[in-house]
């Protein structure tokens, strides 16, 4: 018997063998049910971290299990390889971003192979390679032809640190999501995708995603932010219209001021050559330095100034002052809001700060609000008061009656507003997919023909700290020929946001071989493989990546290019890996290297620990002792199987009718483990309890060996136990199970076997031992029939007069807590 297994020799041996045999290639047999398992692909920063190991171990268990249950499995991997870090590295280290990225991808690929992941590397993608970004450019042209890609001048989020534009979603707490620099505003001509055209469908189709966490669906719904309300037209003293969107038109008589966004075009007109002009200019300049996130944050102090102008309330006819304030955004709604401080908390705080009047127009039942003594806005319903002809109505009635009146008088219209803004996709950087557009003085904006794709990134660019994109300085890139008239043209020098690359990569994986050269993906391939059955990744992508992927999928569906409306049927968002109370990061000095763990203990140990330590959706607390425990278990498994291999090799199947009581119990545990592990993987992703069940089976076999002398042991039963144990452990620990499988005399790979069946009758125990407690303290243990329901268990225990007397002892019964096959807790007083 070999005391310890040599993980380094075994793991490298089987990784080479699997590659040689093409074990992980996607089968061509489309008669079997398909299963598309996908983990979010990584940015090739250089090395995997433990968060990667967790993500990819989860996905690999699911993929391996589905193969064993007879599915045709697609399990691919690639790299989200464009982006700022590579370009910043080029500037810092004078290494071309392509060279830096390719080197990192090669390193990470080797790490993934050493982890034992079962990826089909023939379908690998790297978004920075021309064979991929050619089709990213094609996708841009598809959207351009649909009218979903357009260019306009806009005040955009500008990161000085990264020297590029950011989408709203990429600004986190006023800082750049990538480098943490304070984000400012800048006016630029930019390309956008019209994601707002799909706002309703993106919202409505969330109901189709029952396999997504409710938290993620809620985050997306909140980001889309659909509001039904009324657009009212206030007018300045000169008659200029000021459209205002509100969902509370029942409070229209409570308006005491109007607030415009500082960037609103009317501000300059209303303050021109007035005493308010200089102050307004200074305020506007100040607000332009703030990000939209900061301006709308509940934590940010609301600031504003009066600009010396007035507007007329279209319903009440009252004249109200016009202010500008930091919390109103030009590109949200109409860029103007009506201030109703008695019934909106934000307006209440603003009015109290600047001494603006409060007008109570909604009185709650049984309370009379006094504007002078109110300490907070009344934002709930009630009776309309001080509201002209609408007084006496409930506010619910008032919502409809005011809207009817506004539409009849032509001063308003019912409308729908969204928080969602169009997707800003221009980036003023080099390392991204070039936008396939040229500008011709004669023909204007001209898309590059598909036959001329890809528009290649020139390799000979000069990187400078700060300043404009290297592409804008590259004469050979900028100079182009107009595809329409053949005259001189100027090439677009912006590149695309990297989120575009990841918004369709799951479609690229479906298509293999020569078909990839002819198309981004083929309809037969996507018809078979899409949608992704199980998607796995971090919660941090709940808004950005997932929303964009859903939008692109719907746009392609509308073009007839794919046949699905949603890309991902089921979504698992795994928790973070925590050490010393914080997420692992280099800055905190608490990083554990996967290479160190794999080198010292092996990939199977790393996988087993990270899957056993916590349920996948929860954060995982790193434990060196836990790693040691996983390693000890694998050594224990090794000793068990190698110790029995000679005696059980070639043994037949046990005869159930001839088994003794102890043998029946061991066989029951074997079959119960098969059921438990299969259900935990396939139905609940409860990997920790699945691994625990295999540990219990190992303990049970050792217990049987301790209790039964060698000559009396049932070798057929032990052979069955070893075989089933290795099969159910194979998805978790692929290397050691493959080695032990062959040591038992099997010829084919364990990963080509079908998931073992279990006998439902065998799983049922005739009796189980339960704990009986009084007020939580153990009173006795007792055998009862197995699988009784909670009610049956309670009746069994309290239905025994002697036992009931012992438990109650004349005391009053409060309640009974019964847990099937576990315990009965009798609560008395």
Textual characterization of the structure:
By secondary structure, the chain is an alpha+beta fold. It has 28 helices and 34 strands. The strands form 10 sheets. Strands 10, 11, 12, 13, 14, 15 and 18 form a 7-stranded mixed sheet that branches. Helix 2 (50-68) links the parallel strand 1 (34-39) and strand 2 (72-74). Helix 3 (84-93) crosses helix 4 (97-114). The longest helix has 25 residues, at 624-648.
Number of helices: 28
Q: Mean pLDDT across all residues, rounded?
A: 92
- Give the amount of beta strand, in percent: 15-25%
Beta-strand segment tally: 34
Class from helix and strand fractions: alpha+beta
Contiguous uncertain segments of 5+ residues: none
**Kindly, what is the distance between the CA atoms of the first and last residues, rounded to a whole number of angstroms?**
58 Å
Shape: globular
* Helix percent band: 25-40%
Please state the CA-atom Rg, rounded to the nearest Å.
33 Å
Largest sheet: 7 strands, mixed
């Amino acid at each position: 018997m070999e005391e310890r297994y040599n993980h380094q020799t075994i793991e490298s041996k089987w990784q080479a063998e699997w590659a040689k045999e093409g074990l992980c290639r996607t089968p061509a047999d489309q008669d079997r049910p398909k299963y598309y398992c996908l983990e979010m692909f990584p940015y090739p920063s250089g090395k995997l971290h433990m968060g990667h190991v967790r993500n990819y171990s989860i996905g690999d268990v699911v993929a391996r299990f589905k193969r064993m249950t007879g599915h045709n499995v697609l399990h691919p991997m690639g790299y989200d390889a464009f982006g700022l870090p590579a370009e910043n590295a080029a500037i810092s280290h004078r290494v071309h971003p392509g060279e830096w990225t390719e080197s990192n991808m090669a390193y990470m690929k080797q790490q993934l192979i050493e982890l034992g992941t079962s990826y089909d590397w023939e379908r690998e993608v790297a978004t920075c390679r021309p064979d991929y970004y050619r089709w990213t450019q094609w996708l841009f042209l598809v959207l351009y032809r649909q009218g979903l890609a357009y260019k306009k001048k806009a005040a955009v989020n500008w990161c000085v640190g990264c020297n590029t534009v950011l989408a709203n979603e990429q600004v986190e707490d006023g800082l750049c999501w990538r480098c943490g620099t304070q984000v400012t505003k800048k006016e630029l001509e930019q390309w956008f995708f019209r994601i707002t055209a799909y706002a309703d469908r993106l919202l409505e189709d969330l109901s189709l995603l029952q396999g997504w966490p409710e938290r993620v669906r809620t985050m997306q719904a909140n980001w889309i932010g659909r509001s039904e309300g009324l657009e009212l037209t206030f007018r300045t003293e000169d008659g200029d219209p000021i459209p205002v969107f509100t969902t509370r038109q029942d409070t229209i008589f409570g308006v005491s001021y109007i607030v415009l966004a500082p960037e609103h075009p009317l501000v300059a007109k209303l303050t021109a050559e007035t005493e308010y002009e200089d102050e307004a200019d200074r305020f506007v300049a100040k607000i332009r330095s703030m990000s939209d996130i900061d301006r709308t944050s509940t934590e940010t102090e609301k600031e504003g100034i009066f600009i010396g102008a007035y507007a007329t309330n279209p319903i009440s006819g009252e004249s109200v002052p016009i202010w500008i304030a930091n919390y109103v955004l030009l590109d949200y709604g109409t860029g103007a809001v009506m201030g109703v401080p008695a019934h909106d908390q934000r307006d209440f705080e603003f009015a109290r700060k600047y001494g603006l009047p409060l007008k109570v127009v909604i009185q709650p039942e049984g309370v009379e609000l006094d504007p002078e003594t109110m300490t907070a806005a009344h934002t709930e319903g009630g009776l309309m008061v001080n509201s002209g002809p609408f007084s006496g109505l409930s506010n619910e009635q008032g919502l409809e009656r005011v809207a009817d009146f506004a539409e009849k008088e032509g001063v308003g219209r019912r409308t729908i507003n969204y928080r969602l803004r169009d997707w800003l996709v221009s980036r003023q950087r080099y390392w991204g997919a070039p936008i396939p557009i040229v500008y011709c003085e004669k023909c204007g904006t001209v898309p590059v023909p598909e036959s001329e794709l890809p528009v290649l990134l020139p390799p000979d660019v000069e990187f400078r700290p700060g300043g404009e994109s290297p592409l804008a300085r590259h004469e050979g890139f900028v100079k182009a020929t107009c595809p329409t008239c053949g005259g001189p043209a100027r090439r677009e020098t912006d590149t695309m946001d990297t989120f575009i690359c990841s918004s369709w990569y799951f479609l690229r994986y479906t298509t293999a071989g020569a078909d990839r050269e002819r198309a981004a993906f083929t309809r037969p391939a996507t018809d078979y493989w899409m949608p992704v059955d199980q998607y796995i990744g971090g919660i941090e992508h709940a808004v950005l990546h997932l929303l964009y992927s859903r939008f692109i999928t719907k746009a392609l569906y509308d073009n007839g290019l794919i046949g699905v409306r949603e890309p991902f049927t089921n979504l698992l968002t795994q928790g973070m890996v925590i050490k010393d109370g914080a997420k692992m990061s280099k800055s905190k000095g608490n990083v554990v290297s996967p290479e160190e763990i794999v080198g010292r203990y092996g990939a199977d140990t790393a996988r087993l620990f990270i899957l056993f330590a916590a349920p996948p959706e929860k954060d995982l607390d790193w434990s060196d002792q836990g790693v040691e425990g996983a390693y000890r278990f694998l050594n224990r498994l090794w000793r068990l199987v190698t110790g029995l291999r000679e005696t059980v090799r070639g043994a037949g199947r046990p005869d159930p009718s001839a088994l003794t009581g102890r043998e029946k119990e061991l066989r029951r545990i074997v079959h119960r483990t098969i059921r438990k592990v299969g259900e935990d993987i396939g139905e609940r992703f409860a990997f920790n309890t699945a691994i625990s069940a295999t540990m219990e089976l190992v303990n049970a076999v050792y217990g049987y060996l301790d209790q039964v002398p060698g000559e009396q042991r049932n070798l057929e039963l032990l052979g069955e136990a070893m075989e089933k144990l290795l099969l159910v452990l194979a998805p978790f620990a692929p290397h050691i199970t493959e080695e032990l499988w062959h040591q038992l005399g099997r010829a084919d790979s364990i990963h080509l076997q079908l998931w073992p069946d279990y006998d439902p009758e065998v799983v049922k125990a005739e009796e189980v031992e339960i704990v009986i407690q009084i007020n939580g303290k153990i009173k006795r243990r007792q055998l009862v029939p197995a699988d009784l329901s909670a009610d049956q268990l309670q009746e069994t225990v309290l239905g025994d007069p002697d036992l009931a007397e012992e438990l109650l002892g004349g005391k009053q019964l409060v309640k009974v807590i019964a847990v099937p096959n576990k315990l009965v807790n009798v609560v008395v007083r």
